[in-house]
Structures are given as structure tokens and as C-alpha cells.
Automatic annotation (TrEMBL):
Classification via PROSITE patterns: ABC_TM1
Keywords: Membrane, Signal, Transmembrane, Transmembrane helix, Transport
Gene Ontology terms, MF aspect: transmembrane transporter activity
Subcellular localization(s) per the UniProt record: Cell membrane
Main location: membrane
Name this protein carries in UniProt: ABC transporter permease subunit
Its membrane topology: Multi-pass membrane protein
Gene Ontology CC terms: ATP-binding cassette (ABC) transporter complex
Keyword Transmembrane belongs to the record: yes
Source species of the chain: Dawidia cretensis
Length: 494
């Protein structure tokens, strides 16, 4: 009997491992084209029989590359110019095979052949303003130092971005940074005069914007490719080859326009294109309803917030009691936890990727660190401010230090402790929206995607439920206070 059970257990483990090997994680950077190409990659792999986990909304090249290098994702769409300049630091590499060889030698990573289009960087203007200033190419910016440039944050810091471009052309402007998805609206409204763009952006044709000629050929070629681990199954690599040479620049621009102006779901756009090209078969998967989609993201958001808050309470509450007993180290520990609050959320999340990859774990750890200070500080303050006379009375009647803490000090400090936990919970609800940048899901996915599409409705799908969650947490803690705190103390703290 025992042998049979052992055999069954081994078979179960083996089948679980075999199934896990067929699960591929597809990433995508957080812009329209990244989402669409990511869906194409996912759908083609699914058509080949693989189970695909989508890890979209990754926050830029650095985050996506770290996720691939650390095995958090298996493949994502990338561009040869970005690979050469940003990742390899070898802008002289132009050919796909040379870039592929360099990536394989350094990190064991590979790229596919080109999808068929070049999505290079460009600078663009409103055509009326360009005509009035007789501007045709980037060199003409030298003559107009007063023009306001609004550039995407990534472009400002890229090795093939603003600083080397300005040096190559001798440009005098001091640009401001803004989200790429918002730049087009700012350009149309006249708040900026020039912005960077991807040459396949759907807005270019729709708004009739003028591309400034790169007459020094500064920008490298950005051929779209699949960037994947060398250990990817051979069948998966074969599936990815189906995209080779199948997308033209005009087609990609039209697909981007569908997402922007027709507000089609990225999956629908990718599926329709692949079916029209006969690259995949039909699928019966029905998209989730909007309500179910929102509730799924709400659950993910609650999971992120709840796990981080629970861990913070389990650590900060006993640590606060220890600091109360050993006050000479309290300030040092509180200062150290306070420093964590000064680290920008997106920076802390990005720092987690080399250590913990992407997804739930790094997001929960980052939120846990942010939740420590309010709980820790309020625990110490609550215990310190208990009436000294009551402490003396408790000692006078013979209570041990442990019983004084359990029966007198902690109950009297409870309003302050609950306030700290409440503050940490509300902070986590807001900060958790940024976890979408490292593929952790939650309501931030709606907000990030909405920013990429400049879609207010989509942004509100994430922002409104997050606000409702924050209010709900406030009400929940009101109930907890009513249950845990004596009535006379509730009146005192109201």
C-alpha cells in the first residue's frame, strides 16, 4: 500500500513538473505596441499548445531585461536598436545575427529574426508650426532654442536618447519629462512644441504630425524581434518564427491606431491580425466581462495589500514592544525605517527585480517595507504615552512586566496602534497600484494601460475601485476599533 502511495505521489509530482514546463511567461513593456506584440507572441505560443502566463505592463527596458535575465519571464518583444545601445552598450552592432550572438555569449539569451518592420525613434511637431518656422529636420532645432521639448522619461536617459542626440546635433533646449502616452495630447494642446515618438505610433497618421528628418542618421535601426531565453523549448522557438517578416510598418501603425482610437482590446487586435495572416487557428476562448475583469484585479490588489500588511503587523508590532523596552535603540531603528519611506515607490520596486524577479513576491516585499514605519512608530508612541500613574498602579498591585504589558499598556495603546495599521493599509492601497510595473497585477494595470492609451475611462477603472478600497479599509478599522478599544478610550481619541 505504501509503495502504491509513493508511486502515485511521484507520478503526481512528475506530471506537475511536466505541466509547469509547458507554461511560458510572456512579458510586454507598458506601451501600446508592446501590449499588441506581446499578445501576438502569447497567442502564437498558445496556438502551439503551450499554456501562457501574461506578464504585461513591465516598466520599461531595464525592468523587462532584468525579468528575462532572472527567469521571471521567458520571452518578450524587443527592438534591435534598444538591444544594441541599451543592453549591450554596443551601438555599432546593426545586424540581427551579430546582436543575437553577443546576447547569447553574455547572458544565454537569444532573439528571433525581425517581425518585418523598423520602429525607430523620431522627433515630431505640429505641421503648422513646423511650416511657419521652416523646420524639416532635427538640425533645424538649433535655430529655435525657445521651443519647448517634452520627452518621455526613458528617452531622456537612454544611451540612444536625448543627451547623445543633443550632443550630436548641438541642440540647446532643456526638455521636460512626461509619460509617452500623454505627450501627444500635450503637443496637440500647444503645451509642448516637440516630442519624441516611435515611428509606428498610431497618433502620427491620425493627427497628421510632422516627423523631423534624422539627417545625421543618429537613431539606429529598431527592428522588432522576440527576445527570449536560450532554454526555450524548440517547439516554442519554431512558433515564434511564424512572426518573421509578417508585419509591415504601415500595418503596425494601423494596429496601434485601433487600440488608441477604436479602443479595441489588445488581445482582439492581435488575434484578428494573426487570423487574417493565417498564423493561428480559431480559438473559443471568450474574453472576461468587464465586471469580472475588474473584480479579478480588485482581488489581486487586496491580495497584495493584505499579505504586505499582515507581514508588517507581525514584524512591526513585536518590534515596537521591544523598542519600547529598550528605548536607547528606538530612535535609530525608527530613523532607518523612515529612510525607506523616502525611496520612490517605483525605484524600490525596480530594485526588487534582481533579487526576487517580478510578480507578487517583490511587490509584497516592497509594500511590507513601506508599511513598517507607521505601525512601528505608532506602537512605540502608544506605549510610551500610557499614563505613568497607571503603570505605577499596575506595578504596585504586583503585576509582572509581561502582565503589565498584556493587561494595561497594550490595551491603552491600542487606539494609537490601530491608527498606525490603518495608515499603513491606506498607504499600501495607493502604492500597490505601482506594482503593475513589475507584473504583479492589481488595479494599477488599468491605470498604467490607460496612461499608455490616454484613456480616461480605463484609468478610472483602476482609480475608482482603489479609492473605494481605501474608504472600505477606513470603515473596517472603525469596526475594529469599536471591537478592540474600550468605549472611554474611543471617545478620548475621536
Amino acid at each position: 500500500m505504501k509503495r502504491w502511495l509513493l508511486t502515485a505521489l511521484l507520478l503526481l509530482v512528475w506530471s506537475s513538473v511536466a505541466l509547469a514546463q509547458d507554461v511560458l511567461r510572456v512579458g510586454a513593456k507598458h506601451f501600446n505596441e508592446g501590449y499588441i506584440l506581446g499578445e501576438m507572441v502569447a497567442l502564437i505560443l498558445e496556438d502551439g499548445g503551450f499554456t501562457v502566463e501574461r506578464r504585461f505592463n513591465l516598466g520599461g527596458t531595464a525592468v523587462s531585461f532584468e525579468a528575462l535575465k532572472n527567469g521571471a519571464i521567458d520571452v518578450y518583444p524587443e527592438y534591435t536598436g534598444t538591444l544594441a545601445a541599451e543592453i549591450l552598450g554596443a551601438q555599432e552592432l546593426k545586424r540581427v545575427d551579430a546582436i543575437d550572438s553577443a546576447l547569447q555569449q553574455r547572458w544565454g539569451l537569444r532573439i528571433s529574426a525581425s517581425y518585418g518592420f523598423n520602429n525607430t525613434y523620431a522627433l515630431l511637431m505640429r505641421p503648422q508650426q513646423a511650416d511657419s518656422l521652416s523646420m524639416r529636420d532635427i538640425m533645424d532645432l538649433q535655430k529655435h532654442a525657445d521651443l519647448q521639448l517634452g520627452l518621455s522619461y526613458e528617452f531622456l536617459k537612454r544611451r540612444d536618447g536625448w543627451e547623445p542626440l543633443a550632443s550630436a546635433y548641438g541642440l540647446p533646449q532643456q526638455p521636460v519629462g512626461l509619460e509617452h502616452g500623454l505627450a501627444y495630447q500635450a503637443l496637440r494642446d500647444g503645451r509642448i512644441d516637440v516630442t519624441d515618438a516611435y515611428s509606428t505610433d498610431g497618433e502620427i497618421g491620425r493627427y497628421g504630425l510632422r516627423l523631423l528628418t534624422d539627417n545625421k542618421h543618429f537613431f539606429p535601426t529598431y527592428e522588432a524581434v522576440s527576445f527570449y531565453r536560450a532554454g526555450l523549448p524548440a517547439k516554442a522557438v519554431e512558433q515564434l518564427r511564424k512572426l518573421t517578416g509578417k508585419i509591415t510598418a504601415a500595418e503596425m501603425q494601423a494596429l496601434n491606431a485601433q487600440a488608441l482610437f477604436e479602443e479595441k482590446p489588445f488581445r482582439t487586435i492581435a488575434y484578428d491580425f494573426l487570423r487574417a495572416k493565417q498564423l493561428i487557428g480559431t480559438t473559443t476562448d471568450a474574453p472576461a466581462s468587464k465586471g469580472a475583469d475588474i473584480m479579478g484585479h480588485v482581488w489581486d490588489h487586496l491580495l497584495l495589500t493584505g499579505l504586505a500588511l499582515l507581514a508588517a503587523v507581525m514584524v512591526a508590532l513585536p518590534l515596537g514592544v521591544v523598542l519600547y523596552r529598550f528605548s536607547y535603540v528606538a530612535k535609530t531603528v525608527l530613523y532607518l525605517t523612515g529612510i525607506l519611506q523616502t525611496i520612490p515607490s517605483i525605484a524600490l520596486l525596480a530594485l526588487m527585480i534582481p533579487l526576487f524577479g517580478i510578480g507578487l513576491v517583490p511587490a509584497v516585499i516592497a509594500l511590507f517595507l513601506y508599511a513598517l514605519l507607521p505601525i512601528l512608530r505608532n506602537t512605540v508612541v502608544g506605549l510610551v504615552t500610557v499614563d505613568p500613574a497607571l503603570k505605577k498602579v499596575a506595578a504596585g498591585i504586583g503585576l509582572t512586566p509581561w502582565n503589565r504589558l498584556r493587561l494595561v499598556e497594550l490595551p491603552l495603546a491600542m487606539p494609537s496602534i490601530l491608527t498606525g495599521i490603518r495608515t499603513a493599509a491606506v498607504i499600501n492601497v495607493g502604492t500597490a497600484t505601482l506594482a503593475a510595473f513589475i507584473g504583479a497585477g492589481g488595479l494599477g494595470e488599468f491605470i498604467v494601460t490607460g496612461l499608455a492609451l490616454n484613456n480616461t475611462s480605463l484609468i478610472l477603472q483602476g482609480a475608482v475601485p482603489a479609492a473605494v478600497l481605501a474608504v472600505g479599509i477606513e470603515l473596517l478599522f472603525e469596526l475594529l476599533e469599536w471591537w478592540l478599544v474600550p468605549a472611554h478610550l474611543r471617545r478620548r481619541y475621536q
